C-alpha cells in the first residue's frame, strides 16, 4: 500500500478542483456515492432511450480486465488503481525490461480515445526528465492503453502536505522547479490543465517531477480557453498550500481545508504566521484572478514563464541551518576528578628489620680494580678529545658556501579557479544522437550543489553497449594552464578528464580528438593531469553510470577547474 500511495496515477483525487472545474464543468473526479449509483441503476433504461433519441452516445464502461492480464505479451497488470468514467488505471510490470510501470486503459470506441492517444504521443516527444515519461501509447484489440513510468521511491505532494506546511526553502524549490518545467512544456505547445497536489512528486533526492502532462486532462475531457493561465493559477495554488497547508478556495480538497467562505482569497501571511513574505507575494501574483489581487501592486503572473522569471528574480531562499542535539549529561570519571594516579590509603604494616649492605672490597684485588677502571676512563676521555679537535680543524680549513633562504616570493602560488565561459553537451555520432539534456547544462557549474545536469536514462551502467560514454565540453575562452578539475556527482560515477590540443580554435567533434589526461570514479573526484597541460577545451567524459530510477543515469552537480 505504501508503493501505491506514493506512485499511483493521478486519476481519483478527493475533493472538488476549482481550477479544472472552471475549464470543464462536466469533468469531475471521485467515485459516485451509493445513493447516486442506485439512482443511475433505476434510471438506466430511461437514460439509454433518451440518448438514442437525442443522438448522444451512450456511456462507456471501463474494460473488464483482471490482475495477471497481459498487454502486447509484455505488460502484466498487477493492481487496479482506479476505475472511473469509462477508463481504468493500473500498476503493471514490464516483463521485458523487468520494471514497474503504470497503465491507463480505455475502450477503442471511447469518445476520448483518440484525444488520449494524441496527448500521450505529444507528451512522449517532449522527453523532459522533469515530467514522468510516457513510454508507450497503443491501440490494440479494441483497447487503447498508455504506458508511463512508475516511481515507487517518490512521494506525492498530497502526502507531504498532510504532515504540515513546508519550510520556506522546500516551498521555494517546489515553485521554482514546477514553474520552469511547465514553462518548457508550454513552449512546446503542451498544457497540463490538471496540476493538483497528487500530480506532483518529490524524489528521494529532492527533485520534483510532474505526472499526467496533457494525458490526465485528455482522459477526463478537460479543456481550457487560456491553458497557460489555468496552469499558472494551479502552480500558485500548490505554492499557497505548501506555505499554509490550506487550499486557497472555499472548499476542502486533496486532504486540505479550504478558506472560510465569504472572505475571499486571503494572503498566505494572513492565514499562517511566519510565512516567507516573498513567496507569499509570488503565490498571490499567480492566483490573481476573479477579483483576487496581490498584496502589493505587482503585475499578476499569467503564464508559467512569467512566474518562473518572478521566482528567479527574488532572493534565493537558503535552507535552514542544521540543528544538532544537545549532549546528555555524563558522570565525571576518576581521571577528570583529579584522583587518578594518587596512591590510595593503605593500612600501616609492621616494621621489618633493615638488613645492612655488605662492606666494599677492602683487599688488594679491590684496589687494583679501582686503578684499572680509572685508567680506562682517562684513556677514553683523551681519545674523545683528540677526535673532536681533529673534526673542528677540518671544518675550519674547508671554505663555507653561503646558504640562501628562500624568500616569500619564491613560494609556489596556490592554484586559482578558472571560469567556464560556456559549455555544451557531448554525445558524438555515430553511437550518439548529438544531444544529452542540453537544457540543464548550466546547473553543472552554477555554484549550487543541489542542482545538477544529468544524462538520459540508460538500461546498463556502460550505456547498455550503445556507446562508450557521454559528457560535457567546457570552453575556457582562451588556452589556459589546467592543473586539476574537481567534480561532484550525486552518486558513484566513472569519469575521464580529456583535453583538446592547445592550438585548437574549436572543440573536436569526436571523443578521440581529445587527449585523456586522468581518470577516476566516485562521487567527489579530483582529476589531475600527469604533466602540465594547456588547453581551451576540457571534456568531462562519463564512462560508467550509477543506478537510478530503474535504469542508469549520471548526475553531475558541480565542476571546478583550477589552474
TrEMBL record:
Where is composition skewed (Polar residues) in this entry?
513-527
Q: Where is the Protein kinase domain?
A: 75-355
Check the record and name the InterPro entries matching this protein. Answer: Galactose-bd-like_sf, Kinase-like_dom_sf, Prot_kinase_dom
Entry keyword Transferase: yes
Name the segments for region: Disordered. Answer: 1-68, 397-440, 499-527
Is Kinase tagged as a keyword?
Answer: yes
Q: Name one GO molecular function term.
A: protein serine/threonine kinase activity
Compositional bias (Low complexity) at which positions? 499-512
Protein's name in the database: Serine/threonine protein kinase
Which species is this record about?
A: Streptomyces narbonensis
Amino acid at each position: 500500500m505504501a508503493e501505491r500511495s506514493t506512485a499511483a496515477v493521478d486519476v481519483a483525487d478527493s475533493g472538488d478542483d476549482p481550477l479544472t472545474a472552471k475549464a470543464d464543468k462536466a469533468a469531475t473526479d471521485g467515485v459516485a456515492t451509493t445513493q447516486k449509483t442506485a439512482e443511475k441503476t433505476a434510471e438506466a433504461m430511461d437514460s439509454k432511450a433518451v440518448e438514442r433519441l437525442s443522438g448522444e452516445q451512450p456511456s462507456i464502461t471501463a474494460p473488464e480486465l483482471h490482475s495477471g492480464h497481459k498487454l502486447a505479451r509484455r505488460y502484466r497488470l498487477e493492481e487496479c488503481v482506479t476505475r472511473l468514467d469509462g477508463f481504468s488505471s493500473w500498476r503493471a510490470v514490464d516483463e521485458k525490461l523487468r520494471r514497474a510501470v503504470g497503465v491507463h486503459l480505455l475502450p477503442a470506441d471511447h469518445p476520448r480515445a483518440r484525444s488520449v492517444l494524441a496527448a500521450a504521443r505529444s507528451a512522449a516527444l517532449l522527453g523532459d526528465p522533469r515530467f514522468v515519461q510516457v513510454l508507450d501509447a497503443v491501440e490494440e484489440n479494441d483497447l487503447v492503453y498508455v504506458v508511463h513510468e512508475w516511481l515507487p521511491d517518490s512521494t506525492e505532494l498530497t502526502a507531504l502536505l498532510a504532515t504540515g506546511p513546508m519550510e520556506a526553502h522546500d516551498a521555494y524549490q517546489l515553485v521554482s522547479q514546477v514553474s520552469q518545467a511547465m514553462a518548457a512544456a508550454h513552449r512546446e505547445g503542451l498544457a497540463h490543465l490538471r496540476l493538483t497536489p497528487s500530480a506532483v512528486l518529490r524524489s528521494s533526492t529532492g527533485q520534483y517531477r510532474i505526472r499526467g502532462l496533457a494525458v490526465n486532462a485528455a482522459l477526463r475531457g478537460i479543456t481550457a480557453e487560456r491553458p497557460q493561465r489555468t496552469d499558472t493559477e494551479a502552480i500558485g495554488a500548490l505554492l499557497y498550500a505548501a506555505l499554509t497547508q490550506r487550499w486557497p478556495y472555499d472548499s476542502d480538497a486533496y486532504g486540505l481545508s479550504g478558506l472560510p467562505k465569504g472572505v475571499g482569497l486571503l494572503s498566505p501571511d494572513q492565514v499562517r504566521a511566519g510565512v516567507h513574505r516573498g513567496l507569499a507575494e509570488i503565490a498571490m501574483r499567480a492566483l490573481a484572478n476573479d477579483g483576487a489581487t496581490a498584496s502589493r501592486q505587482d503585475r499578476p503572473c499569467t503564464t508559467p514563464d512569467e512566474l518562473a522569471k518572478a521566482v528567479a528574480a527574488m532572493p534565493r531562499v537558503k535552507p535552514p541551518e542544521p540543528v544538532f542535539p544537545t549532549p546528555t549529561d555524563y558522570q565525571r570519571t576518576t581521571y577528570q576528578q583529579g584522583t587518578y594516579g594518587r596512591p590510595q590509603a593503605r593500612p600501616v604494616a609492621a616494621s621489618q628489620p633493615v638488613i645492612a649492605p655488605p662492606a666494599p672490597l677492602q683487599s688488594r684485588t679491590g684496589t687494583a680494580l679501582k686503578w684499572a677502571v680509572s685508567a680506562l676512563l682517562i684513556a677514553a676521555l683523551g681519545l674523545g678529545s683528540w677526535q673532536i679537535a681533529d673534526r673542528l680543524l677540518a671544518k675550519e680549513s674547508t671554505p663555507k658556501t653561503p646558504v640562501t633562504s628562500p624568500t616569500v616570493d619564491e613560494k609556489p602560488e596556490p592554484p586559482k579557479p578558472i571560469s567556464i565561459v560556456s559549455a555544451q553537451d557531448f554525445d558524438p555520432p555515430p553511437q550518439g544522437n548529438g544531444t544529452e539534456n542540453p537544457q540543464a547544462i548550466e546547473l553543472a557549474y552554477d555554484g549550487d550543489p543541489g542542482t545538477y545536469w544529468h544524462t538520459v536514462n540508460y538500461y546498463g551502467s556502460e550505456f547498455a553497449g550503445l556507446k562508450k560514454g557521454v559528457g560535457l565540453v567546457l570552453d575556457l575562452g582562451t588556452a589556459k594552464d589546467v592543473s586539476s578539475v574537481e567534480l561532484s556527482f550525486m552518486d558513484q560515477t566513472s569519469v575521464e578528464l580529456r583535453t583538446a590540443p592547445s592550438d585548437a580554435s574549436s572543440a573536436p567533434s569526436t571523443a578521440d580528438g581529445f587527449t585523456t589526461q586522468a581518470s577516476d570514479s566516485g562521487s567527489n573526484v579530483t582529476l589531475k593531469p600527469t604533466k602540465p597541460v594547456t588547453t581551451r577545451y576540457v571534456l568531462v567524459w562519463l564512462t560508467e553510470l550509477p543506478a537510478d530510477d530503474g535504469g542508469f543515469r549520471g548526475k553531475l552537480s558541480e565542476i571546478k577547474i583550477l589552474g
